[in-house]
Amino acid sequence: MDVLKERVKTMASDYAAEIVKIRRHLHAHPELSNQEFKTSQYIAEILTELEIPFKSGIFKTGIVALIEGKNASKKVISLRADMDALPIIEKNEIDYRSQNKGVMHACGHDVHMSSMIGTAKILNDLKDEFEGTVKIIFQPAEEKIPGGAKFMIEEGVLKNPTPTVMFGQHVYPDLEAGKIGIKSGKYMASADEINITVKGKGGHAAIPFMLIDPILIASQIITAMQQLVSRNAHFNVPTVLSFGRFIADGTYNVIPDEVEIKGTFRTFDEKWRAEAHQKIEKIATSIAESAGGKCEVFIDKGYPFLVNNVAVSDRAYQNAVEFLGEENVVDLELRMTAEDFAYFAQQVPSCFYRLGIRNEEMGIISNLHTPTFNVDEKSLETGMGVMAWLALKELKNN
Q: Where are the beta strands (DSSP E) in the chain?
């Protein structure tokens, strides 16, 4: 395996410049969730050139490619990269800045795709060196509930052939390029979108006694909601309830008829999640009714919490140490962010890990989902090499 490891490292180094070009093309041409048509076409053209068989059009823009080694049916490993971008105006002054105004790869999906193409090249070159099949999934709509993973699964992406182990990779701005991070067990939270509309009776702000003020009601609702976490959350179950939108379309002396509130609820326990949904609705409607108003609550249930299979993740950790060195593989903490890879992890023993992309000397320190987000492109070499190595090691694991 030492010889094979060095071959993977050499290939990752040799392909790095090409993969950087691919990443920059993808970064310059981002597409929103469920609109990844040109992105899908571009990936399909590359796979065709590499003579890697694939099927496209899964959940509109998704792609599944197969790299078959010797004795292809012996074992199947699946690898996943997401494809969509975010509705953000990019502020980076770079040659490959987004050409689609208001759309940006601010979550690193351009890195995920390009790195995966590098992994595919490596594994395709080495297909005579392993037994089994590597199933590569390019998935749309990760950023938009209910998530592309759910629909790809419904369309049979995990069948014919069915993987026994699955890996996903995501950029991580807190970790230096050249490193990766892994956490076994529960890792990322569930995510639900809270939509509340408070209805009252608007009018002149100088005569509030003649009105039913939805702004006051909505403010009381948000304040009361914070007790949901501090007073009701189950012991040892991390929970977040935050509100990011409060729209009351009045003015200095005009109180509106209604207020719109949007927020997110995240946790790690399905029973508590269901209870919290009921409590959110009851708190909101009760407060509104007590003040003479009305309240409509709609909770859009999003991704489940993500659990990394302990055995798969522990093997991945040791295999990553073997490939990168112990100093370049770190233990991760629980995260309240969410990922629709969780749907895959519910079906297949999986490991979803983090790829370091930070470089303080280069000024690459911005967080995910920000207009100045960027990556140290040396991470692409790490990303494609590590994922190829994890797949090869897992294929050889009995």
A: 54-58, 62-68, 76-82, 133-139, 165-176, 180-182, 185-188, 192-199, 203-204, 240-247, 254-255, 258-266, 294-301, 306-308, 329-331, 350-358
Q: Which among 82, 142, 213, 376 is annotated as catalytic? A: 142
In this prediction, residue 233 has a pLDDT band, given cuts at 50, 70 and 90, of low
Beta bridge partners of 262: 195, 245
**pTM for this prediction:** 0.94
Say which of 68, 82, 84, 394 is annotated catalytic. Answer: 84
Query: Is 300 among the catalytic positions?
Result: no
**DSSP-derived 3-state class of residue 372:** coil
- Bridge pairing between strands 76-82 and 165-176: parallel
Q: How far apart are CA 137 and CA 76, in angstroms?
A: 13
Superfamily of domain 2-188+304-396: Zn peptidases (3.40.630.10)
Q: 192-301 belongs to which CATH class?
A: alpha beta
Spatial separation of the C-alpha atoms in residues 131 and 123, rounded to whole Å:
12
Residue 397: band (very low, low, confident or very high) from pLDDT cuts 50, 70, 90? confident
CA angle 257–258–262, rounded 5-degree value: 170
Query: Please, where in the chain does CATH 3.30.70.360 lie?
Result: 192-301
Burial state string for 263-295 with b = 16 or more CB within 10 A and e = fewer than 16: bbbbbbbeebbeebbeebbebbbebbeebebbb
Rounded Cα gap, residues 341 and 166, in angstroms: 10
Residues spanned by CATH 3.40.630.10 within the chain? 2-188+304-396
pLDDT computed for residue 1 by the predictor? 75
